[in-house]
Design a protein that fits this description.
The complex is a heterodimer. By secondary structure, chain A is mainly α. Chain A folds into 2 domains: about 110 residues, Up-down Bundle (de novo design (two linked rop proteins)); about 60 residues, Alpha-Beta Plaits (2-Layer Sandwich). Helix content of chain A is about 40%, strand content about 5%. Chain A has a two-stranded antiparallel sheet. A two-stranded antiparallel ribbon of chain A has the order 2-3. In chain A, a hairpin with a 7-residue loop joins strand 2 and strand 3. In chain A, helix 2 packs antiparallel against helix 3, helix 3 packs antiparallel against helix 4 and helix 4 runs antiparallel to helix 5. Chain B is of the alpha/beta class. Chain B folds into 5 domains: about 100 residues, Ubiquitin-like (UB roll), CATH 3.10.20; about 80 residues, Alpha-Beta Plaits, CATH 3.30.70.20; about 130 residues, Fumarate Reductase Iron-sulfur Protein, Chain B, domain 2 (Orthogonal Bundle); about 140 residues, FAD/NAD(P)-binding domain, CATH 3.50.50.60; about 140 residues, 3-Layer(bba) Sandwich (FAD/NAD(P)-binding domain), CATH 3.50.50. Chain B is about 25% helix and about 20% strand. In chain B, the strands form 8 sheets. In chain B, strands 4-3-5-1-2-28 form a 6-stranded mixed beta sheet, with helices on both faces. In chain B, strand 10, helix 13 and strand 11 form a beta-alpha-beta unit. In chain B, helix 10 packs antiparallel against helix 12. The two termini of chain B are about 25 Å apart. Classes of the chains: A mainly alpha, B alpha/beta.
């Protein structure tokens, strides 16, 4: 043992899940957080703590962002198993073992992230887009100014629109909107105005389901 | 020490009690990959490459951290251990640059060797870019490319454990671990002593010596100690500087005397090539090595070296040495100690050669030279002064088994056009000889010296000291390229001597058999081609000066006439073979007569060499080496010093305190050689296992 920190720094999965909105956390997102904490908190003297946690974090981050490689599950498992065996400190060992356990328990969820770029609870950023619900937006403009990437367009009294090509999912707008009009969309995309229209002028189509669009990638 | 018997990979080996498994395996010729481990440092267990399995222990362990026990059974090549090592190496490579071929450590890199051994290429993992590696900056001595750092921590441990300095540390910033200095300052702002231990232990190209600090074409044990390497006699300079620092002047002189005769004289006039090589010169200013030597010799009261001088019984053989300069006297000294009946024939009234008749007295007092010759004479050398020998035939029939010619280079050499018998033109070598004998003719009030080397300055300063009003030095080299020592140039300027550099004499006017005036031009440069001297003349730069005395300090050559009876090269140089033997059996030559005018220290080195060769020729073992100072185990823990990099050179050492403050500036380059070299897996040591197959 050469490291002073221990696994008490790592959040527990159950707690993490309970704290999430509606208890809908994502195991992949949790695993990413775990490795991010581990890599930042470790003393970094041993190669598994220093490079292993970082590598695992990078791989899981790619998975959450929809940039996974097809063999990432096996690669990650291999690295984590060696980390669990070889790491000098208890924190890295525990973090690795915990992720391995979650990978085995929730293999389907991991597989869905890796192969289909989907996240059941729409937590992982690579798996959803943000949109402004045209029926809730009152055109107040608060989200417009909050966006660090200038991805939102709109005007006074107009239904705001998020440019998903520009949006980096900083999630800032979510907490700013007084109407709670910013929504996540997974594979199913709702029907939205295709240009700026005044508040109140947008109508859902008859069937109410909106159009379906397949995301790239 | 007790032996422990254990089994590694099916071999029963014996190892020293208390060793770790890794070192025991390596010693027995069993290679286990390792990177952070270094035999001189406390194991850190960081790289995981030395992972093995041990029967009875659960899981995989790091062999560097396990102390050996009797009957231990170690397996280094299990699948699980191999996989773990592989992953560890891959992880290190993920953040390591891939431009191996543009790294100066290419083909001399432990990481690269491990990649080859383990068959790991830059791989399936994500490449990781680290920001904090950019923090570290290089300085004049240590090149730090920290993006190549794999954080093995060897440098940090070397600095702390070996040197007791702690200039380096494992730092953490923004969640990123990196190796740096405490507080991320430059090394020169830490207590770093620039010993090079961190460079020595770094397995990759992260910490390297700056290019140009060490010579590339000599063996490591010489190149790493540049002062010693540059010294023609290879004196152990760092050791005697250390002893001087400790106030052990007599021990310091013992070290000096192992390689040098005339140490006190050298303390005054040595050309100190050592200082030009000094590693500290790249940091701020070189160590005042010559001054330290002089201080030590001057303060050597105990003369402890005398008790350990090697002296052989008389062997009944007889040698004659023609010329009692530094080369001849040095050879005579060592040959006499080897048991030869040694006789020196000196044409002048005093031995010492250029020390007595070339170098002006204001640079070195005759008493210093005489006293040093006296010390050499104690070995029973028979001296014939005022005894010029012009031919080896003069010595035949006197029973000499070998003859050495060390007549020096005592004849002036002028540019061909000025080889005229002007009565007021003097060659520098004659000028200085006459000055030392007090026999200079009337110089008049204007003296012109042609030649900007040390000899030219000796002449000019001598003339000035004799009261000549206008003394001019003319030389073709530009000021920055003049051959003379900087201190000579600055002293001359202080003494009001005019230095006309970058000038070439085009014509010397004569009347009544005298050189009366000279015309010269300014030049941009010059070169010697097959057609002769070629000048790049500046237009309209002609000048004319009248002169009363003209001194040619344009070179010297040996005065070795045909009468000597040995084969010559370039008109007057002795032709010798690789053993310094001339064309005549039993006749050797050394010093300036062989290679032209150089330096006293070069002559001493040459004199030592020829003594060895002559001893071999005459049936001896050729060994003249002496251990005048019993070597002690050097404590590597030198500790840090605040503002070490900024310490300035003291040129004049007046007290032990001055000597200390100058000696303590030494970077102690020799300590680096005490650090063990790690062996690569391809090392022949690992070809056979030193153990019994079970």
């Amino acid at each position: 043992m050469i490291c002073n920190v221990n696994s008490s720094l790592l959040p527990d999965w159950e707690d993490f899940n309970n704290q999430a909105a509606n208890g809908n956390a994502c195991v992949v997102d949790y695993s990413k957080n775990l490795m991010d904490i581990a890599r930042k908190e470790t003393c970094g003297t041993c190669v598994f703590c220093r490079e292993g946690t970082w590598q695992a974090y990078e791989i899981i981050k790619d998975i959450t962002e929809g940039n996974a490689h097809s063999d990432d599950f096996e690669l990650l498992m291999d690295i984590l198993e060696n980390m669990a065996k070889g790491a000098s400190c208890e924190m890295t060992k525990t973090a690795s073992e915990r992720v391995i356990k979650l990978m085995k328990m929730h293999e389907d969820e991991w597989d869905m992230h890796i192969r289909r770029k989907r996240c059941t609870n729409l937590v992982c950023k690579g798996t959803f887009t943000l949109y402004v619900d045209p029926l809730l937006c009152d055109g107040c403009g608060k989200c417009l100014n909050s966006c660090p990437h200038l991805a939102i367009t709109g005007g006074e009294g107009m239904i705001h629109m998020i440019n998903t090509e520009v949006c980096q999912k900083s999630m800032t707008c979510l907490s700013v909107c007084p109407k709670g009009a910013i929504m996540k969309a997974g594979q199913m995309k709702p029907k939205l105005p295709d240009k700026l229209v005044p508040v109140g002028s947008f109508q859902r189509s008859e069937d109410g389901t909106g159009r379906r669009r397949r995301r790239r990638g | 020490m007790n032996k422990v018997r254990l089994q590694i990979d099916g071999y029963m080996i014996e190892a020293k009690e208390g060793q770790n498994v890794l070192q025991a395996a390596l010693d027995a010729g069993i290679y286990i990959p390792h990177l952070c481990y270094h035999p001189d440092l406390t194991p850190l267990g960081n790289c995981n490459l030395c992972s093995v399995e041990i029967e009875g222990e659960s899981g995989i362990v790091k062999s560097c951290e396990i102390v050996i026990k009797d009957n231990m059974i170690v397996n280094t090549k299990t699948e699980a251990a191999k996989r773990l090592r592989m992953t560890a190496l891959e992880l290190m490579l993920a953040s390591h640059p891939k431009d191996c071929t543009s790294c100066d450590k290419y083909l001399n890199c432990e990481l690269q060797a491990l990649m080859q051994y383990m068959g790991v290429a830059h791989s399936r993992l994500r490449e990781i870019d680290k920001d904090n590696t950019e923090i570290t900056k290089s300085d004049h001595l240590v090149k730090r490319e920290m993006r190549r750092c794999i954080q093995c921590g060897r440098c940090v441990r070397a600095c702390d454990e070996l040197r007791g300095i702690k200039a380096l540390s494992i730092n953490k910033k923004n969640g990123e671990t990196y190796i740096g200095t405490v507080g991320d300052v430059l090394l020169s702002d830490t207590e770093c002593r620039f010993c090079g231990a961190c460079v020595e232990v770094c397995p990759t190209g992260a910490i390297q010596d700056q290019k140009g600090v060490f010579a590339a074409d000599v063996p490591r044990n010489m190149s790493l100690i540049p002062c010693k390497n540059e010294c023609p006699a290879h004196t152990e300079i760092p050791l005697y500087i250390r002893l001087t620092k400790e106030g052990r002047y007599s021990d310091a002189v013992s070290v000096i005397r192992e390689k040098l005769t005339f140490p006190h004289s050298l303390g005054y006039i040595c050309t100190h090539a050592c200082e030009a090589g000094c590693k500290r010169d790249h940091l701020n200013e070189s160590i005042a090595i010559r001054e330290i030597k002089r201080f030590a010799v001057k303060n050597d009261e105990a003369e402890t070296w005398r008790k350990r001088v090697l002296r052989k019984e008389a062997n009944g053989k007889k040698v004659a040495i023609i010329g009692g300069g530094p080369a001849g006297m040095t050879a005579a000294y060592y040959l006499a100690k080897k048991g030869y009946e040694t006789e020196v024939y000196e044409q002048k009234a005093l031995a010492g050669g250029m020390l007595s008749y070339g170098i002006p007295k204001y640079r070195i007092a005759q008493e210093v030279v005489d006293k040093e010759i006296g010390i050499l004479m104690e070995e029973g050398i028979k001296m014939h002064t005022d005894s010029p020998v012009r031919s080896i035939d003069e010595l035949s029939g006197k029973g000499y088994d070998a003859i050495l010619i060390t007549i020096g280079a005592g004849k002036g050499k002028r540019p061909p056009d000025y080889n005229k018998p002007w009565s007021n033109a003097i060659d520098a070598v004659n000028f200085l000889r006459m000055a030392s004998e007090g026999m200079l003719p009337e110089l008049g009030d204007v003296v012109t010296v042609y030649g900007g080397g040390n000899v030219g300055f000796d002449c000019a300063r001598t003339a000035k000291k004799l009261g000549v009003g206008t003394v001019r030095i003319i030389c073709m080299e530009a000021r920055g390229e003049m051959l003379a020592d900087k201190e000579e140039i600055s002293s001359a300027l202080e003494e009001d001597i005019e230095i006309l550099s970058g000038k070439a004499i085009m014509n010397i006017e004569e009347s009544d058999g005298k050189a009366t005036a000279l015309s010269m031009v300014s030049i941009n440069g010059f070169k010697f081609t097959v057609k002769g001297l070629e000048l790049d003349i500046l237009p309209d730069s002609q000048e004319r000066f009248a002169t009363e005395t003209m001194v040619f300090a344009t070179g010297q050559q040996p005065d070795l006439g045909e009468s000597f009876g040995i084969e010559r090269v370039r008109n007057s140089f002795a032709k010798v073979d690789e053993t310094m033997k001339t064309s005549v059996e039993g006749v050797f030559a050394a010093g300036d007569v062989v290679y032209g005018t150089k330096s006293v220290v070069q002559a001493i080195a040459s004199g030592r060499q020829v003594a060895m060769n002559m001893d071999l020729y005459l049936g001896g073992d050729g060994n003249i080496e002496e251990m005048l100072f019993e070597r002690e185990t050097q404590n590597p823990n030198i500790g840090g010093l605040e503002h070490f990099a900024q310490m300035e050179r003291t040129d004049t050492l007046k007290s032990p305190c001055d000597a200390y403050s100058e000696s303590v500036r030494c970077l102690q380059c020799d300590l680096r050689l005490d650090i063990q070299k790690t062996k690569y897996w391809v090392d022949p040591h690992f070809k056979t296992v030193k153990g019994v197959k079970v």
